[in-house]
Design brief:
By secondary structure, the chain is α+β, with helices and mostly antiparallel strands. It is built from two helices and five strands, in the order E-H-H-E-E-E-E.
């Protein structure tokens, strides 16, 4: 039996910041990623943008697994501020920027997502629009 979905449209407030968790750039994973998906990239420059996106996506997916979110409609406004080196610990956060009810059964949540390094500097950010079930 699966767990009930705990976060619905009404549970998120505009301005609310949700921690997405943390992850580190693993050196072995970085080498493998570059070999398979970014040949020619020098790992001395840190993780390539595509890997940074993949790490954010994993944090977001893991956090949203228990949410009553039926679909992410858009991921846009991607900004890659820097390429974190192997070993860098990154933490993710999501800030609810807006909400739009759509009928009685669902609503759209607009959010900004950020990946920050250990010093709190921006590594990556994007905007999402996702459909949530209403209570």
């Amino acid at each position: 039996m699966s767990e009930p979905l705990h976060v619905h449209f009404e549970d998120l407030g505009v301005g609310e910041v949700v921690a997405l968790g943390a992850c580190a750039v693993d050196a072995a994973a970085l080498d493998l990623f570059v070999e398979r998906f970014s040949p020619g990239w020098d790992v001395a420059y840190g993780a390539p943008d595509a890997m940074v996106y993949a790490l954010w996506s994993r944090l977001f997916s893991d956090k949203a697994a228990g949410w009553a979110q039926s679909k992410v409609l858009a991921v846009d406004g991607l900004r890659f501020a820097r390429n974190p080196p192997a070993g860098e610990l990154m933490r993710g956060r999501m800030t609810v920027m807006g909400k739009d009810p759509v009928g009685d059964e669902k609503g759209i949540v607009i959010a900004q997502h950020d990946l920050l390094d250990e010093a709190g500097r921006l590594i990556f950010s994007c905007l999402t629009r996702a459909v949530f079930v209403r209570r």
